[in-house]
Amino acid sequence: MYSWKIDLKKKSVLIGALILTALFVTACTTQEGKSDSQGTAKIADMKGAELDTIMNDKAEQDQYLVIDVREKYEYEAGHVRYAINISLNDIENRLNDIADFKDKNIIVICRSGRRSRAAAKILQKNGFKKLFNADGVGSYSYKSITKVTNVRGKQMQELANTGNYSVVDAREPADYAASHLKGAISGNADTLAELLPQLPKEKPVLTYCYSGNRSFAVAEKLVAAGYTVINSLDGTNEYSAFELVK
Description:
246 residues; 5-stranded parallel β-sheet; globular; Rhodanese-like_dom_sf; Rhodanese domain-containing protein; GlpE_sulfurtransferase; signal
């Protein structure tokens, strides 16, 4: 009888221990899940050589949005190819402009890496998940430097609506004939000699195409010829709100 009571007591202790262990594991699992769901994205460092490689690979560059967070005058003096300009002071007010990249790759860059790091932290705080802080233009000699200003589709349409710009459509002539931005002329990097007489030197130029690549090629040649040029990174294949006319 005494032995039976001891066994029963041991079983009770064992069952109690198992229950406590189960509760502890459940609590830990729940806490770990909570921590994961509330975790923030890491900000990865990116070497200048890697960014240069991305900017020179058409397939790769489409997977990233590069944001130069320096002031406008610094950006206009020369910046990494395909980078848009949103200064550190403006970035929190322009989150809606890049909201479609919340789950995509964003590279931030400045002169030394300090402002871009601060900008990345702002994006991190606002739910952007894939962030890279690149070597600054003052610490790495980028090969892909340009003076072509890049904007996204919405801003391109807003600029075109002002009527203050010449507009070049770098798509195929048949697509231009079907529909294009109001006032646009058709041309590409191979027909520059035909384009120049139609573009007053004192008037800035907007360029666009299907995806931003053909138009960028035109833009770089126009900049070399002395024009001020703004290129749309979002082409007609990517930005559906372009107001195209026949």
